Structures are given as C-alpha cells and as structure tokens.
Amino acid sequence: MADVNRGNRPLSPHLSIYRPQLTSMTSILTRLTGNALLLGALMVVWWLLAAATGPDYFATADWFMTSILGKLIMLGSIWALWYHSLAGLRHLIWDAGHGLEFEMAEKMGWAVIGGSVLLTIFTVILL
Q1: Measured distance CA(48)–CA(115) in Å, rounded
Q2: What is the rounded CA–CA span in Å between residue 28 and residue 87?
Q3: How far apart are CA 53 and CA 98, in angstroms?
Q4: Which of 10, 58, 83, 113 is most buried, with most CB under 10 Å away?
C-alpha cells in the first residue's frame, strides 16, 4: 500500500543541516578548473592563429589579450592550471591508497588550495 505520510518527510540531506565538505568542494573545483582551462587555451590558439593570419587580425587579438579582461582570464588560467595539476597529484596519491584518512584528506585539500595560490603568485612574479 502507498505511504500516506510521504509528503511530510524531510528531504535528505536537508539544506538546513547539510554542510559541504572540503574534499567534495575541491573535487567539484577540479572539474570546473579542467573545463575553464579550455577558455585560456582557446585564447592562446586564437592569438597564435591571428599572428599567422596577418598584422591587422593580430592587432585585434593582441589588443584583447593585453586588455584587463584578457589579463584576468589568463591569470585565472594560470591559477586553474596550478590548481588542476596539484589536485591531480592529490588524486594520484589517493589512488595509491595513501592520505585517505579524514585529517590527511583535509590537509591535502588545503595544501592544494594554498599551493595553487602561492604557485600562481610565484608564476606571475617570475614571468
């Protein structure tokens, strides 16, 4: 027989009690940065194709690449590249069966976030 109280039960997990874990957020961010890297790669390909096409087209592409928006996209791409690389290393460590304890997984998550920010700053200063 059908459950008559079905509409009175709370959703699971209910939004008022659910707290996202760091590992789930970093996993989602890994997927997002992987997709976001395509934008930076497409911009670089566009810039190179424009350079091969001619000076007028290259001037347009170079203007966009050196604009504030272009620089912000490229800065975000640098961070996404470092983040995605470090998160990939973390997953390789997990695949080997290490660092799966809760405390270590949390530390590795914060290390990926902090490391990507520090490496991005280092890259921008160096280049």
Answers
A1: 30
A2: 11
A3: 50
A4: 83
Q: Note the pLDDT tens digit of each residue in 66-89.
A: 999 999 999 999 999 999 999 999
How many CB atoms sit inside 10 A of residue 76's CB?
A: 16
pTM attached to this predicted model: 0.81
Across 1-127, the runs of DSSP E, i.e. the strands, are none
All domains in the chain, ordered by first residue: 21-126 (1.20.1300.10)
The pair of structure tokens assigned to 80 is: 């996404």
Report the distance separating Cα 37 and Cα 105, nearest Å: 25
For 116, the 3-state DSSP assignment is helix
- Rounded to whole angstroms, the Cα distance separating 26 from 110 reads 9
Q: List Cα–Cα distances, 98 to 90, 107, 109, 114, in angstroms.
A: 9, 13, 14, 20
At 4 the three-state DSSP class reads: coil
Instruction: Give percent above pLDDT 90 in the chain.
Output: 80
The DSSP symbol for 11 reads P
